[in-house]
User: What shape does this take?
Amino acid sequence: MNKRLLPLYVVAAYAFLHVPLLILAVFSFNASKFTVWEGFSLHWYAALAQDRDLIDAAANSLIIAVVATALATVCGTLAAYALWKRASGWISGSLYLSLVTPEIVTGVSLLAFFQWTFRFLNLRLGMHTVILAHVGFSLAYVVVVVLARLRTFDPALEEAAMDLGATEFTAFRAVTVPYLAPAVAAAAMLAFTVSIDDYVITSLVAGVDSQTLPMVIYALARRGVSPMLNAVSTIIVAGLGALVLLSERLRAK
Amino acid sequence: MRRLRRLFLAPAAALLAVTLAAPLVIVCLYSLMTRGAYGGVERPFTLENYTRFWDPLYGAILLRSSWIAAVATLLCLALAFPLALFIARSGQKKNLYLSLVILPFWTSFLIRTYAWMFLLRDTGLINTLLQSMGLIHEPLPLLYNNGAVILGLVYGFLPFMVLPLYATLERMDPSLAEASSDLGARPLQTLWRVTLPLCAPGIRAGSILVFVPCLGTYLTSDLLGGSKTILIGNLVQNQFTTARDWPFGAAASLALMAVAMVLLLAARRQGEEML
Assistant: This one.
């Protein structure tokens, strides 16, 4: 079976993984509203630019992703460095737990927690709760990626810097950080990807003024298929795909 | 040195406390309380939220969630094994083939699920094509059933199975398979009696990595299963939103979490470094 059937099977498997998204992209350029090809058109992309809901949601998503990524990247990188110096069962265990907790459980427990704190704080669900949630669930991704890079780092380099008179912090900043830079950038891109894509957790902790792009897409998808949805999907998939490829590149360095 | 380390660890520790530990503590407490008159929770403390799982209505949901996750896991295993075998044996191009498996995984789970809605619905591509070819007259009911949910799960989590299988196959000594065929085994016999048993750690790791998220799925069952396929994830979400029975929702989410933890810890105990 190996010689002829296996390659055939592999082609089919890759088709299964990639063709649905390709079809989605192709039909985003369809002139017709229906699933019958009637010629090439950028009509649905033009319609996107007119849709206030989608644009507002996209703006929210970008703000949330940028802020959450920045925070998660800084905290995660520092934590990875600290864990590399000396392991901490508590922190590693918690990070592992945050990676494997089902999304819906993370979402409802954050919701319950936020609502509980609102008894004491005069706050409501909104951008800040979404951002906090996103920093929380992307932190572990950052730590994993940065820690992998640290495993190839020679501690003697830092020691040399300190022997030459650098303080511990200077050694970290001037020697370790530059070495980690590609991994930190890759981790940031990964955090950005998981943030911009999240629906389950976000929908539970978002307020009325913090609708994100996945939330609008979800609502539209539940109502029915619209070619505009294909257009916005194509843009997101292309954007995230490019980001992930770049991130893989950086990590391989 | 120790001070710097503690300083560096502090922000992450604080974040984990606020976004993971405290919420879980709250959920544990809520799961032991009584539903309030206007949503919310009240005293007295009770175990009633947990005993409600014995209600056949909820038992059926647990059972359905488990078998859908199990079928999806088995299908992933069957589909991923030949693919992982191929990638592990493809020499130079390994990384390219591997990236092609991982790439769709990182490009928006929501949109990948929507892609199947686009293909499967009554006016979707498959039904439209079949109708225009005259093969069917009425659209086939492809969407909003268990089959569609399983398809969506397999599509979504296949990379989780391919990666650990690939990792074990890649490390496997090829001379073992050669020895088997030198001793007269046919290729399928070698596959069944040598390669597959040696692959057991990868199979275990992959199965758990797929089963756990499938069991807790919310998005896939909601979009592809419609209102007919209620799974644990949907039950939890429903209790916290429309039904406003937080204590029961909290108990259900802890039950889900407990199953996930038991599976992961059991696998880790067996020395599964991949998890």
Observations:
- Chain B touches chain A through 78 residues (CB under 8 Å).
- The beta strands of chain B are 34-35, 41-42.
- Chain B has 13 helices and two strands.
